[in-house]
Amino acid sequence: MEAILADRPALPTDAPVAAETIRLRADYLLAAQGRKAGTGGFLLQGRARGDDLAPRFGFTASKKIGNAVFRNRAKRRLRALAHEVLRPLARRGWDYVLVAKPGATVVRDWALLQDDLREAVARVHK
């Protein structure tokens, strides 16, 4: 068993922490009471939970976004954005909720969404 583990490369210490998904409505409501940063493509809500556990992410797309196809596409884009950009920037003990904006989240250029998220995280962490 030790020989098998010895062959595996060690995980880097600066690797992004694993994130969990916010599942309870109460946690979404608490995040909505926290800090907010609006951008051209979405709204970022964030709050410190007061513990040292892994960050949690939530995604919201209301019916204002459109039918189920557009809502699902918006949430897929927000999840991919969180995985690429937010996960490395997220702080332990924080909840983050990305809220889709009608007419923007689905059609906005990917590079602009990434820049929006970096800027929004910096504002929420101030």
If you consult CATH, what is the topology? Ribosomal Protein S5, domain 2
The geometry reads as globular
Our measurement of the CA-to-CA distance between the termini, rounded to an integer number of angstroms, reads 46 Å
What structural class do the secondary elements suggest? alpha/beta
Specify the CATH architecture. 2-Layer Sandwich
Number of strands: 5
Sequence stretches where pLDDT stays below 50 over 5 or more residues: 8-13
The neighbouring-strand order within the major sheet is 1-4-5-3-2
In the residues, how many domains can be counted?
1
Major sheet characteristics: 5 strands, mixed
**Order of helix and strand elements from N to C terminus:** HEHEEEHEH
Q: Radius of gyration over alpha carbons? A: 16 Å
- The percent of residues in helical segments reads 40-55%
The proportion of strand residues reads 15-25%
By DSSP (H or I, 4+ residues per run), the number of helices equals 4
Structure description:
Keywords: Endonuclease, Hydrolase, Nuclease, RNA-binding, tRNA processing. Its EC number is 3.1.26.5. One of its GO terms (molecular function) is tRNA binding. It holds the Pfam family Ribonuclease_P. The protein has 126 residues and is α/β, with parallel strands linked by helices. The protein has a single domain, classed as Ribosomal Protein S5, domain 2. The chain has 4 helices and 5 strands. The protein has helices at residues 2-7, 25-32, 68-89, 110-125, and strands at 20-21, 35-38, 42-48, 56-60, 94-100. The chain has a 5-stranded mixed sheet, with helices on both faces. A hairpin with a 3-residue loop joins strand 2 and strand 3.
